[in-house]
Design a protein that fits this description.
By secondary structure, the protein is mainly alpha-helical. The chain has one domain (2-85): Orthogonal Bundle (Arc Repressor Mutant, subunit A). 45% of the residues lie in helices and 7% in strands. The chain contains four helices and two strands, in the order αααββα. The chain has a two-stranded antiparallel sheet.
């Protein structure tokens, strides 16, 4: 299932934790644990959590996933390699 998370993250666009959990048919808490395992293993890296602009002026405000609850992860080189193998 960890490989499935990497595949989802490797595709363009953004997915909320809820979207990924729904795709994998698991709860968000389990998904967060798995993402943290992937991060510790060097497959994912947490991107900056806070935006430096004001939301009302931002052209991405309607599609932004950066909130106090959501975070954005990106694949590392190691993560890309594993996602491609799967």
């Amino acid at each position: 299932m960890l490989n499935e998370i990497l595949k989802i993250v490797s595709k363009k666009g953004s997915n909320s934790l809820q979207d990924i959990a729904r795709k994998l048919d698991i709860n968000k808490e389990l998904l967060l644990q798995m993402i943290e395992d992937l991060e510790r293993g060097g497959y994912l890296k947490l991107l900056e959590e806070k935006c430096h602009s004001e939301c009302e002026r931002c052209s991405y405000a309607n599609s932004c996933v950066i909130t106090s609850y959501n975070k954005i992860w990106s694949l590392t080189e190691k993560g890309f390699k594993l996602a491609e193998k799967s």
